[in-house]
Design a protein that fits this description.
The chain is an alpha+beta fold. It contains 17 helices and 23 strands. The strands form 7 sheets. It has a 5-stranded mixed sheet with strand order 18-17-19-14-20. It has a 4-stranded mixed sheet with strand order 2-11-10-9. α9 runs antiparallel to α12, α11 packs across α17 and α16 packs antiparallel against α17. The longest helix is centred in the last third of the chain and has 17 residues. The relative contact order is 0.16.
């Protein structure tokens, strides 16, 4: 990491740690931050990581494995294609990915709230238009919020439930009054997609459909064939092209996604030139598989994009709704049996750091193995009797000697399983009733790396007398099964930001134990976790916010809900030489808002 990058990291963390505790927005403003004031002034020219002089034209082609059968990404039914929401639909405010959580006016020219953030008001831009030329109105905003909150994906419901009153207060103004203390709500509402009310007259919003949504974004849906490809074409009449927030963004004339059967085919398509940008998740493959002629000739460029965001969590998640995984000792045993050091060396050359907690690699993460102290401990103290071992006194993932045998981990796993009532008889692990310990790992087709990890893991578990099968299904079946939590164990990934908030309840809230379609795939039901999330949402002091985040991290990590694998502090993107991006990178790196947003085509 360069000195320049380190300096920017320090500046980013300072936004969390050192900003004023009680920001005031007594008047309509051009932007809003979770803490303090927006970094950019009202007359900013462009986002700091965008090139306002980027040329327009050309196209970028991505490859995806799987398929799609719907063009509505806002409902539970159907499987929508990549890009449809981000490219064709806009929100009232837009996010700067160079700040932990700051929004600036997009469809709305201003945002207003009070010191307590008991309400938020938005004033729409007079020039804001949908792709068909019709104006974006307060009625569209109110209808979108209510429809998404009552008929859309469950991720929208929680915020809608916190709105006591939604009203039109002027020709271009809407106001939302809250019934709950939640300082993030004004920002959450600022990021809600705005749809055209008239398009849905007489139609059932909850029904999966291939009718293109009429949005106000920079692109419109062009030609597509379900399961094969979809093309997004830049709207030459896009109303927002000259906004400072959009300068240097959305530069391609066409953004296209090609769909293939599995990840291996996607890579071969990239080598053949059928797609023009490819993200490589495996550093060993990055080091060994990119010597093909297009790279050697310079037609393909290999770019590494650093970031400064939390590691998030990725690995195999236990479905604790299944009785077999309800006991934390069983989950810890299976974590002990997962030989990370051996798997990492075998599959990635051992260069990937392991995820040590949900917010590791950031100021928001707990210190592995160290006891909770100060405010962090005080927040958890009321739940001491219900917390799992390690939450207060320190928890760290096991570290093996790297050998395939992993004798220490297997011995500890055996001890824990015996303690939980499981013993080996004739080579089969059974409980007191004689029921064998057996489960299935569900994966989506094309997850070659996860399949390789699973196969090594299965062999280790067999040494404990555990019978494990691995099932692969297509993306549509996978979505349906995970929406209704119909799996024992599956691949799980949750990217986390420098400003965790309401989405945490969707990820870990108890409603997800029975309510379908949430992100709580593990089925956790933890009053302590929900209390820490509420502390995040009501914190007015940055130090209180950090303490709540670290306390939440302790509850999640010591819960043993996921067998973590690795994360990368850089993204690796191979791309056609004509595809370029600015030298100045956002603190979130290659995340939302980076590719294709700030990239351009130049021959």
């Amino acid at each position: 990491m360069t000195l320049k990058t380190l300096a920017r990291l320090g500046a980013a963390l300072a936004l969390i740690v050192c900003l004023p505790s009680h920001p005031l927005l007594a008047q309509p403003a051009h932007g809003i931050a979770m803490y303090g004031e927006p970094a950019l002034p009202p007359d900013f020219v462009s986002l700091p990581y965008a090139n306002p002089d980027a040329p327009k034209g050309g196209r970028i082609i991505f490859g995806e494995s799987g398929g799609f059968d719907s063009l509505n990404p806002f409902i539970l039914k159907g499987n929508a294609p990549a890009g449809v929401s981000a490219l064709t639909v806009e929100t009232l405010l837009g996010r700067s990915y160079d700040e932990p959580f700051t929004l600036y006016g997009l469809l709305a020219e201003s945002v207003e709230t009070d010191a307590a953030r008991s309400f938020v008001a938005f004033t729409l831009r007079e020039e804001a238009r949908f792709a068909d030329g019709s104006p974006v109105t307060p009625e569209d905003v109110l209808w979108s919020f209510e429809t998404l909150g009552t008929q859309g994906s469950p991720r929208y419901a929680a915020a809608w439930a916190k709105i006591a009153k939604a009203e039109k207060t002027g020709p271009r103004t809407v106001r939302f009054t809250f019934n709950t203390e939640d300082r993030e709500l004004p920002l959450i509402l600022g990021l809600r997609p705005i749809l055209k009310k008239a398009q849905w007259d007489g139609k059932d919003f909850t029904v999966s459909s291939l009718e293109a949504i009429i949005g106000s974004g920079p692109y419109v849906i062009g030609p597509f064939e379900p399961g094969r490809f979809i093309s997004y074409l830049r709207n030459p009449d896009w109303w927002g092209a000259d906004l400072p927030f959009n300068r240097g963004l959305h530069n391609f004339d066409e953004v296209r996604y090609e769909y293939f059967g599995d990840g291996g085919v996607v890579f071969e398509a990239f080598k053949a030139g059928d797609i023009t940008s490819y993200r490589e998740a495996n550093p060993a493959a990055w080091a060994g598989n990119y010597g093909f002629p297009a790279v050697q000739s310079g037609q393909v460029v290999l770019s590494e994009i650093p970031h400064q965001r939390p590691s998030g969590i990725e690995g195999f998640v236990f479905n604790t709704r299944r009785e077999i995984f309800a006991d934390w000792r069983v989950r810890e045993a299976l974590i002990q049996a997962f030989n990370f050091e051996f798997i990492n060396r075998t599959l990635t050359g051992g260069v990937q750091p392991r995820i040590t907690s949900y917010f590791s690699n950031s100021v928001l993460g707990m210190t592995p193995g160290a006891p909770a102290q100060g405010r962090e401990r005080a927040l958890l103290a009321p739940f001491a009797d219900s917390l799992l071992p390690g939450a207060l006194d320190g928890y760290a993932l096991p570290v093996s000697d790297g050998s395939e045998a992993n004798r220490t981990g297997i011995r500890e796993a055996t001890r824990l399983l015996q303690e939980a009532g499981w013993t080996v008889t004739d080579g089969v692990l059974t409980n007191a009733a004689g029921t064998p310990f057996a489960f299935d790992i569900l994966l989506v087709q094309g997850q070659d790396d996860m399949l390789s990890i699973a196969n090594i893991y299965v062999e280790a578990l067999r040494r404990l007398g555990i019978a494990v099968t691995v099932t692969t299904v297509d993306s549509a079946q996978y979505k349906e099964r995970t929406n209704r939590y119909d799996f024992d164990m599956t691949h799980y990934i949750r990217s986390l930001s420098l400003s965790p908030g309401n989405e945490q309840m969707l990820y870990w809230g108890a409603a997800g134990v029975t309510e379908p379609g949430t992100r709580n795939w593990m089925g956790m039901n933890s009053p302590a976790a929900e209390a820490m999330i509420r502390a995040l949402l009501t914190a007015t002091d940055p130090q209180e916010f950090i303490a709540a985040s670290r306390a939440l991290d302790r509850v999640l990590t010591s819960g043993r809900y996921v067998v973590p694998i690795w994360y990368s502090d850089v993204s690796r993107i191979a791309h056609a030489r004509q595809l370029q991006y600015p030298d100045r990178l956002p603190i979130y790196g290659d995340w939302l808002g980076f590719q294709p947003d700030v990239w351009w085509y130049q021959d």
